[in-house]
Amino acid sequence: MSKPKLFLLDAYALIYRSYFAFIKNPRINSKGMNTSASFGFMNILNELLRKEEPDHIAVVFDVNKPTFRHEMYKEYKANREKMPEELRENIPYIRDMIKAMNIPLIEQEGYEADDVIGTLAKRLEKEGVDVFMMTPDKDYGQLVSQNIKMYKPKRFGQGIDILGVEEINEKYKLKEPTQLIDILALWGDASDNIPGAPGIGEKTDIKLVGEYGSVEGIYEHIEDLKGKQKEKLIENKEQVMLSKELVTINIDVPLDQDYSDLERKEPNAEALEKIFDELEFRNLKARVIPQKAAPAPSAQGSLFDAMPEEEETYSDLDSLQSIETDYKLIITKKDTEEFAELLKKQKAFCFDTETTSAEPIKAELVGMSFSWEKRKAFYVSIKGNDLDLNTIIDLFKPILEDIGVEITAQNAKYDMLVMRKYGVQLSRNLFDTMIAHYLIQPELPHNIDSIAERYLQYKKVTTESLIGKKGKNQISMAQLNPEKVKDYACEDADITYQLKPLLEKELEDHNLTKLFQEVEMPLISVLADMEFYGVKIDSEALKNIANELREELIELEKNIHQMAGMEFNIASPKQLGEVLFERLKITDKPKRTKTKQYATGEDVL
Fold it and tell me: Do 39 and 162 meet the contact criterion of CB atoms below 8 Å apart?
């Protein structure tokens, strides 16, 4: 007799996966709603039920409130991007679909989904249940045991991987899956803002844990290590130990659910049909509710079996901490001069500037980064360089102005304007990744962080993690040690270099190459000229216009006071609301804000 099977689904990991699976070809219904996340998630759930026929199942959600990890480390997940609004709109529908399927929906305040899943998995494996944790999140590997496995959707929709003890140990070269906690502690996690041990690559971390057994074991034998590796580990010991606590999944969450609560039940067909009709999931409805079948479905395949290549998962991203890179700081006279000679030989390279301000006209140059090979880049620091600024500019000016060299940049106009201040007219033989992405996906964010996540499944180091959040406490790049800026600057150039061929292909596929090359790229130089030289202002004419507008406003204010029968501050929403809705009673049902004040916004009025 086969053992009973329990499937525990990590809701948001799968929802994000579903949304981004269709990011380049989103599903939009007739009301203009992007239903990709709802459609994708329901597809995953339906395929799971059909293929695996679990005896028991539950979907676990994170609660949108601080957890015990936030109490432990206030910067936990501080750099997380806000959930896209069109994805957020899908969440209530997904929750309703889960309830209509009569599948338990579990969430626990103060804890994350992986803690809840870990607690249930460890508790129920003792009852002889085979537990499958459905998630693309590698962190769950630490929970794997003889009766607990990861059920991980593969990238590019190539089915699923079932990872047990043997697979986890082999993948990370471990003796037991719990050692994954130690590897994760060293790696850190850029998406969750877990610091880890910076400057030590993934292979080295795996080797160290393999040799010494744990983070604690590494520090017990720290004197056996040498050079920068030893230095980095000693310097970051406190944050490595904190990281270990943060990445450890809590398996003691106080939960009321027992095994019988998770038993699979028949869905509520009527409730499901109502949701499917509202979202316009006709073919999906035919598969999930056969008795209501529409014409046989063919166009909407399973996310396991038929996800096109570009439909990628974003739940398990690479980062600077998890890959090996060759990033070099150029700061001595010898290195700077030799690098300039090396750069002269390149027919194409990626270029990026590091500066003191987001406004190019105000910005001072801190350094320049270059890349022409994947995961390899160079950062020429102005600060601390043996050569003075003018000498450095003289070295690189002819290379950057050479029309025979193709320069790739992210937001090239910014770099053009910065370099113009130093007498460098950046070559107009350009490829701008930001503009290319704008043409391909105009409705999405075009910053390099977002593009890197979509195209490279890579989480970049954020600017805020270096200089702090905007405000009085934010520092300037010029205040940082060049060694600290190096990885950030090189990463920008490297990632931009990697994006170019991918975006080039998409421009070609969408017949946008001509528009990009003949209109958009030449226009960058024109716009840069306009911003650099500015426009002349007729200050006298502006004063006259201001006086005319002022007189009109005074007259309008008099008319308003006359119509209201009293004088009041028109700029005060509170006073305006009282006049309109209490004195003049322009409606019987006035709208109110959350603070119970009358709503007087333009849309309301």
Answer: no
Residue 552 CB partners (closer than 8 Å, separation 6+): none
Q: CA 464, CA 41: separation in Å to the nearest integer?
A: 33
The pLDDT of residue 158 is 58
Contact 562, 556 (CB under 8 A): no
Cβ within 8 Å of residue 318, ≥6 positions away: 456, 457, 458, 459
Q: Which two tokens stand for residue 121?
A: 């998995």
Q: Give the integer Cα–Cα distance in Å for 80 and 13.
A: 14
| Amino acid residing at 159 | G
Burial of 451 (0-12, 13-18, 19+ CB in 10 A): buried
Q: What is the spatial distance between Cα 52 and Cα 380, in angstroms, rounded to a whole number?
A: 55
Query: For 441-480, how does the pLDDT look when each residue is reduced to its tens digit (9 = 90+)?
Result: 886 788 998 888 878 878 888 777 777 777 777 777 778 8
Closest CA to 379 of 344, 428, 333, 328: 328
Predicted local distance difference test score (pLDDT) of residue 312: 36
Q: What is the DSSP letter of 477?
A: G
Distance of alpha carbon 316 from alpha carbon 459, whole angstroms? 9
Distant-in-sequence, close-in-space partners of 558: CB < 8 Å, separation ≥ 6 = none
Q: Which two tokens stand for residue 474?
A: 């934010």
As a whole number of angstroms, the distance between CA 148 and CA 377 comes to: 42
Domains recognised in the chain with CATH numbers:
5-173 (3.40.50.1010), 325-533 (3.30.420.10), 568-605 (no CATH)
CB 597 within 8 A of CB 582: no
For residue 16, what are its two tokens? 């994000």
pLDDT at 156: 47
At residue 544, the pLDDT reads 95
Name the 3-class secondary structure at 49: helix
Lookup: tokens for 345: 């030989």
pLDDT digits (tens, 9 = 90+) for 505-544: 999 988 999 999 999 999 999 999 999 998 888 999 999 9
Distance, in Å, from the CA atom of 174 to the CA atom of 179, rounded to the nearest integer, reads 6
Q: What is the dihedral of CA 447, 450, 456, 460, to 10 degrees?
A: 80
Q: What is the pLDDT of residues 329-352, one digit of tens each?
A: 999 999 999 999 999 999 999 999
